[in-house]
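I have been asked to look over a protein record a colleague put together. This is what I was given:
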Amino acid sequence: MGLWIFTVPFFSLWSVTCYCTDLQNVSMPVFKNYSAIATDFLNNFEAEATKISVGESESAWKYETHLTETNREFSVFSTTFAKAFYLKASENASGIRDMDLSNDMARQIRIIRRNAFPKSPKDTKLIEDLISNMTKIYSSGKVCKQHNTTNTTQCFDLDPDLFSLMGNSRDYDELLWAWKGWRDAVGPPMRLLYQKLVVLLNEGASKHGWGDFGNFQRSEYEMGNDFQSAINKLWNDLRPLYQELHAYVRYKLRKKYPQVPENGSIQAHLLGNMWAQDWSSINDLVKPYHKVPSLYVTPNLIKQQYTPLKMFKLAQSFFVSLGLDPMPHSFWNRSLITKPKNKKVVCHPSAWDFGKGDVRIKMCTVVNQENLITIHHEMGHCEYFLAYKDLPYAYRSGANPGFHEAIGDTIALSVENPKHLKSVGLLYAVGENKEADINFLLEQALLRVANLPFTFLVDQWRWKVFSGSITPSNYNSEWWRLRMRYQGVKAPVPRTEQDFDPGAKFHVSANYPYISYFVSLILQFQFHRALCNTAKHSGPLHACSIYKSKEAGQKFREMLAAGRSRPWPQTLYHLTGERAMTAGAMLEYFAPLQEWLINYRIKKGYPIGWKKRKLQTSSMQTNGARKTLSSSTSLLQNVNTEALANNSQSVNLTSSGNKSSADVTFPEVKNSDDTINLGKPDLKAALAAMGPTLKASEPTRGKSNTLLDPKSAILGSKPMFVPNKIMDQLDLG
């Protein structure tokens, strides 16, 4: 999955003195005309933030497209200094009484006020050092094998080498070698760095009244303490669909791999993806009807001599067909769309907003179907950037982070439609019967339904780390408990507490929140259904493509252009007529497949679900493991973490994928439900006092869901994770 990059402001080296002067200009004169104060403050902030954002963006771009120590240091310096600007602006914004302002001004003030940066410049710089070094470890990681016959060593990068191997190999041991080798290469070197990062992030969040950094992250959704309960409900609504898919795939995989258990968790390296989150690459092993024409377009992309550039042009043509903006001329000159041969880069796909219409994509594109869909995803971010580029600086973001991730994927739901692929020449024949529909829906489920639990659990793990209920002594074992509990996958070999398997995912090493992808999976189907209705589609939801519908495009543009200017339920309502995230549209889309899977399981008699099993891992602890957040100052006893942050480039970043060490049995997971409990405060008790939720299948058009309405979360009861003595900083009621 890609990222979108909305960079914080920066100033070039020659303007340091001027910048520091401007920083002082953001401060407040002492008088009580708050409207005048706010107007002056916002005008000053707008001009300064807009002016200096380009330099910071360029420094980050320069580093990620050329991984050198000089570029890293400059990027860290730029981000650190920019955060000093935001910290000062946040402090000054806190002195303005927003209740005396217009709704628009008050919302901007509250967005600027929201902050969790450490107040110590040294700590801020150390955070950026830690993140940049973990990103470097990840992006430089390789898995190497020795060829004894030729006495040579062959090394594999993650992208595209290991991606290709995990997707195409059907050799159990080769897949295991790649899976374990990648985790051995990148996990252990960043483990201590991550421990220190958690302490620093929590200290910053605590000083701003958030309690811990997880509370700060969840506040982005403007739902108070309702957010956790809302996503738990969404997962519970969709879990039966996932369990049916899991049972079917496990049944099919057993025919290829006898090591797969009949009724247990699936080995994580057998699902066609390094993280077992996207199962579409094993479609050939699980496809229901092999006589139906294939929907896989990679052979045709190659046959028709598609290049990465041609794939980008094809993606642009879909957006333009809706009346949305083409990519600007600068996009084609400044984006990085293929992997350079002469320098190291961060290959993880990302979309970048440099302001004033300068948007770019960074991606090491390979000509295949998966990358074609990723291009649409990233270009969706760029369309969002272009749509809200003229809004005030505080509003140049998605309505919530999940909105941003959902834009391109909403388009992809139409792009992947077989009839659309035929219309653009990427498929030559399309079946038009129930068997063809089931094949198509299963392929979609392997991509999207399979991804639900992983996108849900990554931040469940991370929030527990921030809250202190997961400590460094059980980072890895708790990671695999969650993987087993939600995904029904298991590590294929024993893991130890010297490993750091969460760090094998880019978003953990880069400290990028992941729950937005879960939210995106929900929203993209709600968006798709609403746009299909606007396009006057008739028939099953999965058969809809909005290609060339200017009416749907105009409706979409209106939502994009709103940016973050209003609470997201209002933005959602303007497009869909719904005020809450619900699973109904996704369940409607996959309803024919779910019915088929149930009938197929009954016919074949295979089990559903996975038994709880004992976790095989090691009890070995890392130095200085702590039990509570209160002892954070002694977290890394005997470890010079500042030195680690600045010298991680000397760590060996390769792995030969050797077998792991001894293991010990851990107790079984006792909780049978799939609701994450973050510890105190008691979320369940709070939810019981807040009223019922709407069922996923119940239409919400024209209704206000009390549980998911930010106004009720803020005004009806004080959110548990919002700082004491203040209202939610983003909601306007």
